[in-house]
Design brief:
Distance between the termini: 35 Å
Strand content: under 5%
Helix content: over 70%
Number of strands: 0
Number of helices: 8
Largest sheet: none
Structural class: mainly alpha
Order of helices and strands: HHHHHHHH
Number of domains: 1
């Protein structure tokens, strides 16, 4: 959510974003740390940790209610964040031509284009993260529903829950998706630059190209 908030500020306040982007980033980082620490303190306060656990993924039995509340909150936050990112990107993409018509400097226009690019990447990562966080609780609910203490092994049941936790796989996929996305963006830019270089700039063909670009700008 902090990344989405930062992208919203960058998109809707592109004129002033470069001036306070560092301060905004430090404040959001501090806010993320504070929220995480408060979440851990609320989840495990007064816990003696005497119950044996297979891994750190399993919370103590006394803290199941707190864990379920956190899980539902996380799912809600990720879902709202994904919808917000879709809305922000759609609105900004539709208004991109109008923003370019305004009397703005070249650096601001470049910032607008970069914001769109980073927003697409953030939307992709947010969607992937939301899928990961949806798979885990649904898998746990399915395993609990079909678990029979008298017929099934508890160790196998807990191992299946551990397998359903795909955050480690998401951590591995995250840089790969980012690298692939940036490579595609770089390739598209090179293609656009090459096509612009090959355009005729003189004669009737040059005038036709200029007229077409001018008409496209005001459409």
């Amino acid at each position: 959510m902090t990344m989405i908030f930062e992208r919203c500020v960058a998109i809707f306040h592109a004129l002033r974003y470069e001036k306070f982007s560092k301060t905004l980033g430090n404040c959001l980082l501090l806010l993320t740390i504070v929220i995480t620490v408060c979440q851990c303190c609320w989840s495990y306060i007064n816990e003696d940790f005497n119950s044996p656990q297979i891994t750190c993924l399993f919370t103590p039995p006394k803290r199941r209610n707190e864990r379920n509340i956190q899980l539902y909150v996380l799912l809600s936050v990720h879902f709202v964040g994904l919808l917000t990112m879709m809305f922000v990107y759609t609105v900004h993409h539709r208004n991109q031509r109008q923003l370019f018509r305004l009397n703005q400097s070249l650096s601001v226009r470049f910032q607008i284009c970069e914001n769109l690019t980073s927003s697409r990447l953030l939307f992709t990562l947010s969607a992937l993260q939301l899928i990961i966080y949806f798979v885990y609780p649904l898998s746990v609910l399915f395993l609990k529903k079909n678990f029979n203490p008298t017929k099934n092994s508890l160790a196998v049941f807990l191992s299946n829950i551990h397998v359903a936790y795909l955050v480690s796989e998401y951590t591995l996929i995250l840089p790969l998706v980012t690298i692939k996305f940036l490579r595609n963006i770089k390739q598209v830019r090179r293609s656009n630059i090459q096509s612009m270089i090959q355009m005729k700039a003189a004669g009737e063909e040059g005038w036709a190209v200029y007229s077409r670009q001018l008409r496209k700008q005001w459409e």
